Amino acid sequence: MRKISFLLFITVCLVFSTSGILYAFSQGNQDCAKCHSLNNEQARTLLNALIPKVKVIYVQPSPMAGVWEIGIDIEGKKTIIYLDYAKKHILSPATRGDIVDLKTRADLTQESLEKITKVDVSKIPLKDALVLGDKNAKYKVIVFSDPD
pTM value? Predict the structure, then answer.
């Protein structure tokens, strides 16, 4: 009897977990703003480390789910910053639209861009190159020019 009850319990759990009943929100219909809050003072405290003397004009949910829209004034210049609900990353025109980690101040967009645009220097054909100096030097500088 115990085995049958246990198997029935496992089966019910599997059925409910795959049907979405065990989720806090039905999938795709989340309104994260119900559980997350941010006021002007909290926003100012978060942004002050990155942007000294920032004045927060307003805070509201953005059109994009999971992101706050924060209107700010920096010494008379007004702009908008977007902050994720986890309060870890910002996106703003001041950062050229790059995503910045608030804690480390790392430009995550730039880091990703550097990864995909990195050139493997060892794959550059130097067969027809004009070499100046020692061919076996520790450091090499490769200059490209367009004769046109």
Answer: 0.63
Is the pLDDT at 6 greater than 90, yes or no? no
Pairing of strands 99-101, 67-74: unpaired
Evaluate whether 82 touches 62 at the Cβ level (below 8 Å).
yes
Sequence-ordered list of residues with C-beta below 8 angstroms from that of 87, at least 6 positions apart, any chain: 38, 46, 102
CA 101/CA 86 separation, integer angstroms? 11
In total, the chain counts a number of residues equal to 148
Cα distances (angstroms) measured from residue 8 to each of 13, 34, 140:
9, 35, 69
pLDDT digit string (tens) for 104-113? 989 999 999 9
For the segment 27-58, what is each residue's pLDDT rounded down to a tens digit?
555 666 667 888 888 889 888 888 888 999 99
SS3 of residue 81 by DSSP: strand
Partners of 83 in the beta sheet? 68, 90
Separation of alpha carbons 69 and 71, rounded Å: 7
The pLDDT value given to residue 30: 62
Strand order across the 89-91 sheet: 54-61, 67-74, 77-84, 89-91, 99-101
